[in-house]
């Protein structure tokens, strides 16, 4: 039987709605919030207000694009956490009202599970990973290495103890007075720079956990010192700085992924999250495919960043397992995978 699921994502600063027909995505519509640019990061209060404004048009547009009438929906899935509470509550309340009005099942979705299950979207050119696989989820809010044993069986084997990888990019960019989010700009400038020009501190942590706060401090102190001697130091060395910072972050990530691959003897590696758009991260992954025989899985960019399609897809898997939520369900800022 065909199932049609509406997925709603509102955990951070993207309001997104996706429509899945089984594992195919019929529409994936996202409203980004530009309001945060001027503040150098996401402002929670402004984010929830913007979700309120965006959610109705975003869901409406997704339904129209998919050529689906609300009465045709089999279920409504929504992100219940982890994320910013005020933002999550907008999606949660909207999903509840819609499920209630249409008298269809309501399905809560863990955002981190959805990032992983996005790899199972059925689309030409996208291949689903084989179990077990390792998923490196890297974004502005998350950095995890997850051992994925089945659609519903996960083990987090490593995660960040402080900042996420995207946050490291964004905070480094902010120190250099670049606008938020700085990750894509650092990527762009790094292409023109020398990655070996500057060296920054890398953490020495046992196991598979990450830490990025030391790197941020190392960049800050280094630049404060240089700017004393030359106020235009950042401007003059921007490309080399970006290349060196990007290389350090990508090396920190790969040190742990490589360790996990060799310790666990798993050759299937997937990536997810906004930072997986990074060109060095992608080329380093491709290199390991060629040189080490890794099987790599990179979803289309629109399914890597926060999106409603991954929520709809996770909703599909939960629907076929009859894993529904009742109307007392609520959002939570912190949530285990
Ligand atoms: O997944 P995402 O859209 O939202 C969440 O944070 O959940 O990820 C956004 C993050 C930001 O930190 C942004 O700077 C980073 O992904 N990002 C990048 C690139 N594109 C986006 N970081 C490095 N290189 C990129 N090309
Ligand atoms: Zn995310």
Helices and strands in order:
Elements (H helix, E strand, L loop, with lengths): L3 E6 L4 E8 L2 E9 L11 H23 L8 E7 L3 H18 L3 E5 H7 L15 E6 L4 E8 L2 E7 L5 H11 L7 H8 L22 H17 L3 H4 L1 H27 L3 E5 L6 H14 L2 E3 L3 H4 L3 H13 L17
Parallel strand pairs: 1-4, 4-5, 6-9, 9-10
Antiparallel strand pairs: 1-2, 2-3, 6-7, 7-8
Bound molecules: 5'-O-[(R)-(carboxyoxy)(hydroxy)phosphoryl]adenosine and zinc ion.
Give short descriptive properties of this protein.
alpha/beta; 337 residues; Nucleotidyltransferase, domain 5; 5-stranded mixed β-sheet; globular; binds 5'-O-[(R)-(carboxyoxy)(hydroxy)phosphoryl]adenosine; 2 domains; binds zinc ion
Q: What is the 3D shape?
A: globular
Order of helices and strands: EEEHEHEHEEEHHHHHEHEHH
Calculate Rg over CA atoms. 20 Å
Structural class: alpha/beta
- The CATH architecture of the largest domain: 2-Layer Sandwich
Distance between termini? 29 Å
Strand content: 15-25%
- In the CATH scheme, the class of the largest domain would be Alpha Beta
The tally of domains stands at: 2
Name of the CATH superfamily of the largest domain = ATPase, nucleotide binding domain
Which topology of the largest domain does CATH recognise?
A: Nucleotidyltransferase, domain 5
Number of helical segments? 11
Query: Which range best describes the helical content: under 10%, 10-25%, 25-40%, 40-55%, 55-70% or over 70%?
Result: 40-55%
Q: Mean pLDDT score, rounded? A: 95
Question: Which hetero ligands occur in this complex?
Answer: 5'-O-[(R)-(carboxyoxy)(hydroxy)phosphoryl]adenosine, zinc ion
- Give the strand order of the largest sheet, numbering strands 1, 2, ... along the chain: 3-2-1-4-5
Write down how many β-strands occur, each being a DSSP E stretch of 2 or more residues. Answer: 10
The major beta sheet can be summarized as:
5 strands, mixed
What are the segments in which pLDDT stays under 50 over at least 5 consecutive residues?
none
């Amino acid at each position: 039987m065909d199932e049609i699921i509406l997925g709603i994502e509102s955990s951070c600063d993207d309001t997104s709605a996706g429509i899945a027909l089984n594992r195919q995505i019929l529409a994936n519509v996202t409203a980004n919030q530009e309001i945060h640019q001027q503040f150098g990061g996401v402002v929670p209060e402004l984010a929830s207000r913007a979700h309120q404004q965006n959610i109705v048009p975003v869901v409406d547009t997704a339904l129209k694009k998919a050529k689906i009438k609300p009465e045709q929906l089999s279920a409504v899935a929504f992100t219940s956490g982890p994320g910013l509470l005020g933002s999550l509550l907008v999606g949660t309340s909207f999903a509840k009202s819609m499920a209630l009005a249409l008298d269809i099942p309501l399905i809560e979705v863990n955002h981190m599970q959805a990032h992983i299950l996005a790899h199972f979207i059925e689309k030409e050119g996208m291949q689903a990973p084989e179990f077990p696989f390792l998923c490196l989820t890297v974004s502005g809010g998350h950095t995890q290495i997850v051992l994925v044993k089945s659609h519903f069986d996960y083990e987090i084997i490593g995660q960040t103890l402080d900042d996420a990888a995207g946050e490291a990019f964004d905070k480094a960019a902010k120190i250099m007075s670049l606008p938020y989010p700085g990750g894509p700009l650092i990527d762009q400038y790094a292409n023109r720079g020398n990655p070996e020009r500057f060296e920054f501190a890398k953490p020495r942590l046992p196991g598979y956990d990450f830490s990025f706060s030391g790197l941020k401090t190392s960049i800050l102190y280094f630049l404060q010192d240089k700017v004393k001697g030359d106020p235009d130091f950042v401007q003059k060395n921007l490309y080399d700085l970006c290349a060196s910072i990007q290389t350090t972050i990508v090396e920190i990530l790969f040190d742990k992924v490589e360790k996990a691959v060799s310790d666990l003897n798993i050759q299937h590696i997937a990536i997810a999250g906004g930072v997986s758009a990074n060109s060095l991260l992608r080329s380093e992954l491709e290199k390991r495919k060629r040189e080490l025989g890794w099987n790599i899985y990179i979803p289309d960019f629109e399914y890597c960043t926060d999106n409603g399609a991954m929520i709809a897809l996770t909703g599909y898997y939960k629907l076929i397992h009859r894993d529904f939520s009742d109307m007392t369900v609520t959002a939570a800022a912190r949530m285990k995978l």
